[in-house]
């Protein structure tokens, strides 16, 4: 099996490359050993690398990361084609149909006033699709278990809210945050490790709900917080190195002072922008 020339469309070349890698006669041994389960972690990893390039605004890297993610779609599609399940064209047609079906205000006669209204209508269409597909008995059945915990928490809450199981205001959620924090303190006072873990989980879950009520993507917000922590901690490391000092020989007060320096530098930079 030969790879099409550069005159072929880029997607046809990629599909042919994957077919060759999966060819039992002369293909790649590693690629031939893979299945849906073994490839799934790589698919998730590549999606995170796309998000990371966007977060760092490294758009020169984004092209490559999107290519890596596309390769995952091609890989899964090729394995499905080998098993007689579906092929890449079926994948493309499925998303074409879905996008047209879920945008009746663009491809049909429906009218939508704004993005918020469209989001409500999108969820209604998805609910109708779930009901028609008979995927499960519970409203929550098709929320993927493999999602990152924060993302899944927000999706579970959003799904429950579609039937009215939701606090009416963000202030009510804040009250629940205070309640859960008090329960964390109580578990800590009792020195009960299992209760502490459970109550911290409840606190995080409620904070996630607060983010949802305020229209904050908590997964993205947490990634940003991680990036901010890393940036400020690196400032501490660089500052100490410039003094000839070491982290493990520096007091917490001194490190906190450098942390605050990093915050002031960032604040001054934002003001200049």
Automatic annotation (TrEMBL):
<dbReference type="GO" id="GO:0046081">
    <property type="term" value="P:dUTP catabolic process"/>
</dbReference>
<dbReference type="GO" id="GO:0046047">
    <property type="term" value="P:TTP catabolic process"/>
</dbReference>
<comment type="similarity">
    <text>Belongs to the nucleoside triphosphate pyrophosphohydrolase family.</text>
</comment>
<dbReference type="Pfam" id="PF03819">
    <property type="entry name" value="MazG"/>
</dbReference>
<dbReference type="InterPro" id="IPR048011">
    <property type="entry name" value="NTP-PPase_MazG-like_C"/>
</dbReference>
<dbReference type="InterPro" id="IPR011551">
    <property type="entry name" value="NTP_PyrPHydrolase_MazG"/>
</dbReference>
<dbReference type="GO" id="GO:0047693">
    <property type="term" value="F:ATP diphosphatase activity"/>
</dbReference>
<dbReference type="InterPro" id="IPR021130">
    <property type="entry name" value="PRib-ATP_PPHydrolase-like"/>
</dbReference>
<dbReference type="GO" id="GO:0046076">
    <property type="term" value="P:dTTP catabolic process"/>
</dbReference>
<dbReference type="InterPro" id="IPR048015">
    <property type="entry name" value="NTP-PPase_MazG-like_N"/>
</dbReference>
<dbReference type="GO" id="GO:0046061">
    <property type="term" value="P:dATP catabolic process"/>
</dbReference>
<protein>
    <recommendedName>
        <fullName>Nucleoside triphosphate pyrophosphohydrolase</fullName>
        <ecNumber>3.6.1.8</ecNumber>
    </recommendedName>
</protein>
<dbReference type="GO" id="GO:0006203">
    <property type="term" value="P:dGTP catabolic process"/>
</dbReference>
<dbReference type="GO" id="GO:0006950">
    <property type="term" value="P:response to stress"/>
</dbReference>
<dbReference type="Pfam" id="PF01503">
    <property type="entry name" value="PRA-PH"/>
</dbReference>
<dbReference type="GO" id="GO:0046052">
    <property type="term" value="P:UTP catabolic process"/>
</dbReference>
<dbReference type="InterPro" id="IPR004518">
    <property type="entry name" value="MazG-like_dom"/>
</dbReference>
<feature type="domain" description="NTP pyrophosphohydrolase MazG-like">
    <location>
        <begin position="34"/>
        <end position="107"/>
    </location>
</feature>
């Amino acid at each position: 099996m030969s790879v099409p020339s550069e005159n072929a469309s880029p997607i046809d070349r990629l599909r042919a490359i994957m077919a060759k890698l999966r060819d039992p006669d002369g293909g790649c041994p590693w690629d031939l050993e893979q299945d849906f389960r073994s490839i799934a972690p790589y698919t998730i990893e590549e999606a995170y690398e796309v998000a990371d390039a966007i977060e760092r605004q490294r758009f020169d890297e984004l092209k490559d990361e999107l290519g890596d993610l596309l390769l995952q779609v091609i890989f899964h599609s090729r394995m499905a084609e080998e098993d007689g399940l579906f092929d890449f064209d079926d994948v493309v047609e499925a998303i074409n149909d879905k996008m047209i079906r879920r945008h009746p205000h663009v491809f049909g006669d429906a009218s939508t006033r704004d993005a918020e209204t469209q989001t409500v209508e999108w969820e209604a269409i998805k609910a109708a699709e779930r009901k028609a597909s008979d995927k499960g008995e519970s409203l929550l059945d098709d929320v993927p278990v493999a999602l990152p915990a924060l993302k899944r928490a927000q999706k579970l809450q959003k799904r429950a809210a579609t039937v009215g199981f939701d606090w009416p205001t963000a202030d009510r959620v804040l009250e629940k945050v205070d309640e859960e924090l008090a329960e964390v303190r109580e578990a800590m006072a009792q020195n009960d490790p299992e209760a502490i873990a459970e109550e911290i989980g409840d606190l995080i879950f409620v904070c996630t709900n607060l983010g949802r009520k305020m229209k904050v993507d908590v997964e993205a917000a947490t990634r940003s917080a991680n990036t901010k922590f890393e940036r400020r901690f690196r400032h501490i490391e660089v500052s100490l190195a410039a003094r000839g000092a070491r982290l493990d020989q520096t007091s917490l007060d001194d490190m906190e002072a450098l942390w605050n320096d990093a915050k002031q530098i960032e604040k001054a930079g934002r003001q200049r922008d």
